[in-house]
Amino acid sequence: MTKVRVAIIGASGYTGVELMRILSAHPGVELTMVTSRQYAGQPVSAVFPSLRQLVELEFSDNRVQAVAAAAEVVFTALPHKAAIEVVAELHAAGGKVVDLSADYRFSDRALYEQWYQPHTRPEVLEAAVYGLPELFREEIRTARVIGNPGCYPTSVILPLAPVLKASLVDTTSPVIVDAKSGTSGAGRGLSPGSLYCEVNESFKPYKAGSHRHQPEMVEQLGRVAGERPELLFVPHLLPVNRGILSSIYLSLARPVERQEIENLLAGAYADEPFVRLLPEGELPQLSAVRGSNFCDIGFVLSGEGRRLVLFAAIDNLVKGAAGQAVQNLNLICGLPETSGLLTGPMAP
Q1: CA-to-CA distance for 307 and 312, rounded, in angstroms?
Q2: Whose CB has fewer CB within 10 Å in the chain, the N or C terminal residue?
Q3: Looking at the domain assignment, is residue 345 inside a domain?
Q4: Band of pLDDT at residue 159, cut at 50, 70 and 90
Q5: How many of the other CB atoms lie within 10 Å of CB of 257?
Q6: The pTM is what?
Q7: 116 and 223 share a domain?
């Protein structure tokens, strides 16, 4: 079987090393090039010893055209705003791109510009597809630019979308999202807020009401439901390496029985390979998804069936980033969607 040639631009962050780990065991791809300005010329194994004998490449500082020539599909794991022109160049060169920044996640250009900066490549933005396979699989298959979803949005959109789509949410009250993330979500760059002594034995909210993942959630949930919901999103930083646990509180438009919610979620996800619906009495936990591409979903009802709390757990570096990106790669290349992604969670 001819393998798909793949490259990663910006491979020296946590998302980059996770991409390399997954791709090293993917039967359908050949990793041909990885770039990093900081580590150009150094072997990958010298920077990430965990990849010794798995990725026998050196980091390069090659220009976009060289990367495009070396690969059919390119992952761009660059900071927000830095990816705009790089993705546009790759698109112009005829390649396929899975972008892990926020630069191509938005359909609404004005919404992106409200939260980030002016978008200098609106024609490419219009061609991009939001890469959440469970909701937009058929659009993804034929796309050349994929905006890979954010980690928090993945953990919120998947459990909430079926309930919103069924018009069960009382829209006179906001949907409250209380989410917690491991410190790897802050990236690999040095930051006082993510130093060990700042994070260990601590727990704190941050960017409440101003986190850039909030408008992404609102836009995509609006696509599913027909109108954008009011969302109050409060993220927290956990003193753990990996994982996101989101608790979503909402009032319902009418009383419901547990079976109705179970049927909604099963109707949406029973056949999805990476969504696991938990039985009554079980709720998601980070340790059950660590290192995997799974999203575990559970829920509880209260208030005589008028209050619903949805729960979702993912590994922020896998289903929240690199694993989902590989899932998108599989779709746009006509490979089995689960290729390279069926490794079970790590326990303990």
Answers
A1: 17
A2: C
A3: no
A4: very high
A5: 10
A6: 0.96
A7: no
Query: Crossing angle for the helix pair 133-141 and 323-332, nearest 10 degrees?
Result: 40
The catalytically annotated residue of 151, 197, 295, 333 is 151
Q: Is 42 helix (H, G, I), strand (E, B) or coil?
A: coil
User: Which of 41, 32, 91, 18 is CA-nearest to residue 67?
Assistant: 32
Tell me how far apart the alpha carbons of residues 210 and 115 are, in angstroms, rounded to a whole number.
9
Question: Can you give the pLDDT at residue 274?
Answer: 98
The beta-strand segments (E) located in the chain are 4-9, 29-35, 59-60, 73-76, 96-99, 129-130, 145-147, 175-181, 204-205, 231-237, 244-251, 275-277, 295-302, 307-314
**Which residues make beta-bridge pairs with 251?**
307
Tokens coding 134: 């469970």
Looking at residue 104, the DSSP 8-state letter turns out to be T
Give residue 183's domain range: 152-315
Strands 29-35, 59-60: parallel, antiparallel or unpaired by DSSP? parallel
Q: What is the DSSP letter of 182?
A: -
171 shares its domain with 289: yes
Give yes or no: residues 81 and 189 share one domain: no
Bridge partners, 299 (sequence order): 310
Secondary structure letter of residue 62 according to DSSP: -
Asked whether residue 117 falls in the same domain as residue 260, the answer is no
Residue 15: CB partners within 8 Å, gap ≥ 6?
Answer: 77, 100, 317, 321, 322
Please tell me the total count of domains within the chain: 2
Contact 243, 313 (CB under 8 A): yes
Residue 347 is assigned to a structural domain of this protein: no
Residues 246 and 107 in one domain: no
Residue 197 known to be catalytic? no
pLDDT band at 191 (very low <50, low <70, confident <90, very high): confident
Q: Which residue has the tokens 């993942």?
A: 213
Number of other CB atoms surrounding residue 154 within 10 Å: 27
Report yes or no: 14 and 326 within 8 Å, Cβ to Cβ.
no
